[in-house]
Design a protein that fits this description.
InterPro entries: UIM_dom (IPR003903). The chain has nine helices and five strands, in the order ββαβαααααββααα. It has 385 residues and is mostly helical. It folds into three domains: 50 residues, no CATH class; 163 residues; 159 residues, no CATH class. It has a three-stranded mixed sheet with strand order 2-1-3, with no helix packed on it. Helix 2 packs antiparallel against helix 8. The longest helix is centred in the N-terminal third of the chain and has 89 residues. The two termini are 62 Å apart.
Length: 385
């Protein structure tokens, strides 16, 4: 029979020290002690302060678990505080970036508008400078300009007289040809006076209830008004106003007729304005009916020059717009890079948030105390990486 000596722990119901005195039977059978309660005698000695090894190990694991929980809570608080600060910093940075971008875009648009206006003004001045000489040469070398200059040299007094008489004729034509508003007002006055006189003359002649008689009355009003108030044709201008020179500037002759209608006066004014385009005085303008071939040729030359000038100006304007567009794209490149950097920062923030959420889900799903230590250590290692 084996004898077992135990020293119990004071802080737990477990033995701290156990000594076994084996009997010969257990030694013979190769056992550590005899099997069965009746074959073992137990002697309890005085207890020992403290706990057994198993309880001490469990206490150490509990303390380690508490420390690990405290570390995890501290790390979580740090991450939450850092995330809040990161959100505030990110919003502040985004607001500053937005204000800077708006200010930069406003300044850039103002500079671009000023630059485009300056380039267009420079192009216009350059275009005028390059083509002014050509237009002056055409005006100076044209046959019509030479003929008018020769006529001015030969007959200076007739030019002054013609200019004075032409001005008088135009003024008289404007006085004799009223405007549309004046004609309308005058016509209203005439119609009212005609109606009043007709009513006074024909009152009581016949009844006004019959529709046919009323129609006859209206027709008679119109006929009476036409016979009474029809204006005579405008007077002819003085025969001396139709004096002109021949294309070579020699001698004088009479025109077919003076401008007695509004269409002829407008034709004369348009001819004078076309001559003033070449820088020539209106007093020496020849009749367009005398030189139709020369005037049409000059008009074609001027039209061709204007077409070339317009084409050159449009090409220059298109080139300036292309330059401004390229410059704008180059200036917008830094803003696009800043937007890409902002998107990357947002993606990294979302990844960090997903890691924190996965850690919380991991803690909620795994509550086994035996596996918690190793899994949390692995989680912390992965989180730090």
């Amino acid at each position: 029979m084996c004898h077992l000596t135990r020293h119990m722990a004071t802080e737990c119901p477990h033995p701290i020290v156990e000594n076994v005195d084996q009997c010969e039977d257990s030694i013979w059978e190769g056992l550590d002690q005899c099997e069965g309660e009746n074959e073992i005698t137990v002697e309890t000695k005085e207890p020992i302060e403290g706990k057994c090894m198993m309880c001490q190990q469990m206490d150490a694991e509990r303390r380690e678990h508490q420390n690990m929980q405290a570390v995890i809570e501290q790390i979580g608080e740090e991450f939450r505080a850092r995330a809040e600060n990161a959100d505030a910093d990110f919003e502040r940075i985004m607001e500053e970036s937005r204000r800077e971008a708006e200010e930069r875009n406003r300044i850039q648009e103002a500079d671009e508008e000023a630059q485009i206006a300056r380039l267009m003004e420079e192009s216009r001045r350059e275009f005028q400078t390059q083509n002014q000489g050509t237009l002056d040469d055409v005006n100076a070398n044209s046959d019509l300009a030479k003929a008018l200059a020769a006529s001015r040299r030969t007959t200076p007094s007739n030019d002054a007289k013609f200019e004075y008489e032409l001005a008088q004729a135009l003024a008289l034509s404007k006085e004799q040809i009223p405007t549309a508003e004046d004609e309308e007002a005058q016509m209203k006055v005439i119609m009212e006076e005609s109606l009043r006189q007709y009513q006074d003359q024909n009152q009581g002649a016949y009844g006004d209830e019959d529709a046919q008689l009323q129609a006859i009355l209206e027709l008679s009003k119109i006929e009476w008004h036409r016979q009474t108030w029809q204006q005579p044709p405008p007077p002819d201008l003085e025969a001396s106003l139709s004096v002109d020179m021949d294309p070579q500037g020699r001698g004088k002759g009479h025109r077919p007729g003076a401008p007695t209608s509004l269409g002829q006066v407008e034709q004369l004014q348009s001819a004078l304005s076309s001559f003033s385009f070449f820088g020539l005085p209106s007093s020496s303008a020849a009749s367009p009916s005398h030189q139709p071939g020369t005037q049409s040729q000059e008009s074609k030359e001027i039209g061709a020059i204007r077409a070339q000038q317009q084409a050159a100006y449009e090409a220059s304007l298109a080139a300036d717009r292309e330059k401004a567009k390229k410059k704008k794209e180059e200036e917008e490149a830094p803003r696009k890079h800043a937007e890409e950097a902002t998107k990357q920062a947002e993606n990294s923030k979302q990844a960090q948030h997903s890691i924190e959420e996965s850690g919380e889900e991991y803690e909620q799903e795994h509550d086994d105390p035996a596996l918690l230590k190793a899994k949390r250590l692995a989680f912390l290692d992965r989180l730090q990486k």
